[in-house]
Amino acid sequence: MAKEKVVTATGFLGWIDRRFPLMSIWRDHLSEYYAPKNFNFWYWFGSLALLVLVLQIVTGIFLVMHYKPDSELAFYSVEYIMREVPLGWLIRYMHSTGASMFFVVVYLHMLRGMLYGSYRQPRELVWIFGVAIFLCLMAEAFFGYLLPWGQMSYWGAQVIVNLFSAIPFVGEELSVWIRGDFVVSDATLNRFFSFHVIAIPLVLLGLVVAHIIALHEVGSNNPDGVEIKEKKNAEGIPLDGIPFHPYYTIHDLLGVAGFLIVFFAIVFFYPTMGGYFLEANNFLPANPLSTPEHIAPVWYFTPFYSMLRATTDEFTWVLAAMAIVFAIGLLFSKKTKGVWKIVWPLVLVAVAIGLRVFDAKFWGVVVMGGTVVILGFLPWLDQCAVKSIRYRPSWHKIMYAIFMVNFVILGVIGTKAPNPTLNLISQTCTLIYLLFFFCMPLWSRWGKCKPVPERVTFHPHA
Predict the structure, then answer these.
(1) Structural contact between residues 267 and 64, judged by C-beta atoms closer than 8 angstroms
(2) Distance from C-alpha of 199 to C-alpha of 136, rounded to nearest angstrom
(3) What CATH number does residue 266 fall under?
(4) Taking the model in full, what pTM does it have?
(5) CA of 84: how far to CAs of 81, 124, 228, 428, in Å?
(6) Which residues of the sequence carry a binding annotation for heme b b566 (predicted)?
(7) What span, in angstroms and rounded, lies between the C-alpha atoms of 192 and 196?
(8) Are residues 73 and 180 in the same domain?
(9) Same domain membership, residue 105 and residue 68
(10) CA 145: distance to chain centroid?
């Protein structure tokens, strides 16, 4: 086997490298990290997520310089930033637009992972870190949403925090502890500010680093779902791999350029996005005595908010029936073996009983949280013989298309005021969402898969 050639830095870089593994990090994660040569545009979104994270941190630092976490001054400090601070309006709009664009990029990044099976062995931990990042982003966005202290910020926080009161036995005490008071007040604003500015970003940065390290340890997936580490040359370099730098750093610059064009077009010409990025009610100071006609979260929360609203007392009967059916199915399934053949059916029966014992509001909170957490179990729910959607049965593509359309419908309904028709649609869509995952161990096995090539398929540009 050929001896590994290591280039040693000289001069100032050499002085640093002898005291800190700078060049080692550069080689391991960029210049000698071999990525599959058939990446497509879907692989831009990981780099774009990192770009937006940096953008949010930098703009957040400048906003904190002038923001006052005080219930009497918070709204007016934001107005001061917008009107008096040089380029303050630009920093504020970049931060608010960045929050929404962060979720756009992350949703597309997760969708790519689902389509190409990037959560499958050996990348289970990479995916779990990714889901944890998504949960942190949701917490970060929620805590930050209160800070402008506008009407929708105030009442949105009031509604969401009140949901915790539905938790049996400890709910009331828990909601008071989260608020720091019996209502959303100055104490709530201060603790939300500390979580948004310090606590959650520290956890988020740690998870991002862990996500990247875990990814580079096992290697990147690709549109074919072929492991490039299985085919190497005499020097131990993957035959279908190319160094991430300079090839994909240049490749990603195209995605960055396109993203920044769209991003700044929104910032300069349409920062509110018709009320989806910044609601009209949030340009009014918070008034505890005046409730907005319709309280709804920001668009990136609305799919899960729809599922929360869909969980009515009548709907829990449907969920209880589903739990019983699944319990019976597991009891007679040949795939369930050992102690799990008894444990899982008993758990599902207990859930079915609990659905009738505890309040529907509590189960709405469970459904809203569970529909996010269930994403972390995808590596074990998906039993298909192949990873990538390219080689799965054609009707699998229809299943994923239904899932995506269903998710968008839930998001749209979440922005609307509730009515019987929309409630029925959201309940149907919630069932589709749940069944997509709970039935995945069955439907993912069905159908004939196409043969997967031994090496990646790659067609270089002419």
Answers:
(1) no
(2) 10
(3) 1.20.810.10
(4) 0.93
(5) 6, 49, 55, 49
(6) 109, 211
(7) 6
(8) yes
(9) yes
(10) 17
Q: Where does the pLDDT of residue 3 fall: very low under 50, low under 70, confident under 90, or very high at 90 and above?
A: very low
Binding residues for a ubiquinone, by number, are 216
Q: Residues forming the annotated binding site?
A: 95, 109, 196, 211, 216
- Phi and psi, residue 285, nearest 5°: -65, 150
Is position 216 within any domain? yes
- 328 and 377, same structural domain? yes
Tell me the pLDDT tens digit for each residue of 417-456.
889 999 999 999 999 999 999 999 889 999 999 999 999 9
Largest CA distance in the chain: 76
Host domain of residue 399: 302-444
Compute CA distances 82 → 85, 154, 344, whole Å.
7, 20, 55
Cα(122)–Cα(440) distance, integer angstroms: 19
Residue 86 sits in the same domain as residue 212: yes
Answer yes or no: do 309 and 399 share one domain: yes
Separation between Cα atoms, residue 214 and residue 29, nearest integer Å: 11
**Is residue 278 assigned to a domain?**
no
Helix, strand, or coil here: 182? coil
- Do 259 and 317 lie in one domain? The reply is no
pLDDT digits (tens, 9 = 90+) for 22-36: 888 888 888 889 999
Q: Is 285 helix (H, G, I), strand (E, B) or coil?
A: strand
- 315 and 263 belong to one structural domain: no
Structural domain includes residue 52: yes
Residues 6+ apart with CB under 8 A from 325: none
Binding residues for heme b: 95, 109, 196, 211
Both structure tokens of 163:
């949901």
Number of domains the chain is built from: 3
* Tokens standing for residue 231: 């085919």
The amino acid at residue 376 is G
Q: Which residues contact 28 (CB under 8 A, 6 or more apart)?
A: 216
